[in-house]
Write a structure and sequence with these properties.
Largest sheet: 4 strands, antiparallel
Structural class: alpha+beta
Number of strands: 18
Number of helices: 12
InterPro entries: Nucleotide-bd_a/b_plait_sf, RBD_domain_sf, RRM_dom, U2AF_lg
Subcellular location: Nucleus
Organism: Populus alba x Populus x berolinensis
Family: Belongs to the splicing factor SR family.
Protein name: Splicing factor U2af large subunit
């Protein structure tokens, strides 16, 4: 139709390119189809962002423009760690607004409208709010909880051991003050923790203190990542240092309380009991062995006592410096662990832990 109206190569319109209708529509709706994504990790690239958002849009039922990927283009500013993600349709871009706070490559990201978004114009192009029936739970988001804990003081708590209960995590966080909001993200199918949570404190002045005290500490086999969800970590102010020190002491106690319960076995391993030099002398070794037999026998039926000694060539054998107590049952070993842990022996405070029975029976005395 257009060539008939404006024949190319003739008249004053001959040198002007004609923009297809589809391209004109895309240009007019671009501000309403673009999504700002902030707080990206350094490893993010255009392809990983496009693939991720296409997948999560499909997972929540946010695709409305038919089959295929919702994302058509991605531009990343690596220096400032943000991206513009262009969707196929205005409605899909609005649905993407429900993804604020979603975890991308282990960190929560901000999902916002770009600065050139024109609300009044966008309202004429399609829906401006996400569909209320989106399945956000499919991607670990809960309307009114994780996504609802808004503002610059929202805290991301990642790296949580999966066995931590909601009550334990709250107890840990509340070492710094009462919570205004808390959400432990759980798997929709199993109800199990996905290892991260969000919270906001009632007293916003403790936000940075909590982040500084908790970030990087080890909990079981995990290391916590705790920071403001929507921005980089801020250092606590000088006047907060005393509060931070007290908080860190509280966390040290909480960490002990939140360790996973030990696996009870019939073998107890003692450390801080003997030195290498004491074990080299035969007479001293026999005295130590007898003393330990008498003391350990008070807790239950003792089957065996093993105290590894250095090799004759001076090289340390596996387990040197440890004492192993094997009991006839776990009742005896449990009493021994509780009774001997922390006691003084030869001027040292004894550390007593359960030891795997299979490793002990095979002579594997190292951890």
């Amino acid at each position: 139709m257009f060539p008939n109206m404006f024949p190319l190569g003739t008249g004053q319109f001959g040198a002007l390119p004609v923009m297809p209708v589809q391209a004109m529509t895309q240009q007019a709706t671009r501000h309403a189809r673009r999504v700002y994504v902030g707080g990206l990790p350094p490893i993010a690239n255009e392809q990983s962002v496009a693939t991720f958002f296409s997948q999560v849009m499909a997972a929540i039922g946010g695709n409305t423009a038919g089959p295929g990927d919702a994302v058509v283009n991605v531009y990343i500013n690596h220096e400032k760690k943000f991206a513009f993600v262009e969707m196929r349709s205005v409605e899909e871009a609005s649905n993407a607004m429900a993804l604020d706070g979603i975890i991308f490559e282990g960190a929560p990201v901000k999902v916002r409208r770009p600065s050139d978004y024109n609300p009044s114009l966008a309202a004429t192009l399609g829906p401006s709010q996400p569909n209320p029936n989106l399945n956000l739970a499919a991607v670990g988001l809960t309307p009114g909880s994780a996504g609802g804990l808004e503002g610059p003081d929202r805290i991301f708590v990642g790296g949580l051991p999966y066995y931590f209960t909601e009550a334990q995590i709250r107890e840990l966080l509340e070492s710094f003050g009462a919570l205004r909001g808390f959400d432990l993200v759980k798997d929709r199918e199993t109800g199990n923790s996905k290892g991260y949570a969000f919270c906001v404190y009632q007293d916003l002045s403790v936000t940075d203190i909590a982040c500084a005290a908790l970030n990087g500490i080890k909990m079981g086999d995990k290391t916590l990542t705790v920071r403001r969800a929507n921005q980089g970590t801020n250092q606590p102010k000088p006047e907060q240092e005393n509060v931070l020190l007290h908080a860190q002491q509280q966390i040290a106690l909480q960490r002990l309380m939140l360790q996973p319960p030990p696996v009870v076995t019939k073998v107890v391993c003692l450390t801080q009991v003997v030195t290498v030099d004491e074990l080299k002398d035969d007479d001293e070794y026999e005295d130590i062995l007898e003393d330990i037999r008498m003391e350990a026998g008070k807790f239950g039926q003792l089957v065996n006592v093993v105290i590894p000694r250095p090799r004759p060539d001076g090289e340390n054998a596996p387990g040197v410096g440890k004492v192993f107590l094997e009991y006839a049952d776990t009742e005896g070993s449990s009493k021994a662990r509780a009774g001997m842990n922390g006691r003084k022996f030869g001027g040292n405070h004894v550390v007593a832990v359960f030891f795997p029975e299979n490793k002990f029976s095979q002579g594997e005395y190292d951890d």
